[in-house]
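Students often ask why we bother encoding 3D structure as a string. The short answer is that it lets us treat folding as translation between two languages. Here is a chain of 208 residues written in the first language.
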Amino acid sequence: AIKPAPSPTTPAATEKPKGGFIYHGTSIRNAQQILKSQQFDLAKLGTGADIRFKKGTIGVFGLGQKPGFYGEGSYFTSSQELAKIYAEARPSGKGKILKASIEGKIFDASDKTLVMDDIREYWIKRVPESRKAKKLPPMTDNQLRVAFDAEVKDWQSGYIKAVNEYAKDKGYIGTKFSDGEIVIWDTKAIKSITDVEKPSLGAVVKTS
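And here it is in the second language, the structure alphabet:
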């Protein structure tokens, strides 16, 4: 049975990464740029397409003008161990792991069954206005539900797009699709960025 979806204010929907920190595995060059500027400036960090991963590794970073698989934004993980996979997933096998704190709430979409009902209802409420503006005939509630289910069958262009639109409209700063895929769109919400090996190279991390 499908579990009822939580409201956007429940802990399940707004949970922050454990410890309040997120991690980013990247190239040494990108790490230097991020630490120096203390920000994730997507326009200056290259694109996911620029990174050639070792055979067998997964994922493409959403940097620069070309969004990653889960949409445009800065990609993080919930743990240092997961970030290490991305940091080392390049021909040289060398990279850096950055640690950052965040200000704001991340929408947890890691369990699809917990959030699908809320996203479906949100989508259904928006479509009639859009169809009216385009002078298209109205649809019944049943037709709208069938249309939504067909739309989200395509994982990337359907489900991921619907989740991100919902989360942005509700005021979240990013979406967590899994422990290894946390996408932050509001880069101003990323604070106190440090090198996990040499914390003194970045800002002082506040733990209180």
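Translate back mentally: Residues 154 and 179 are 22 Å apart (CA to CA). Keep this in mind for the problem set.
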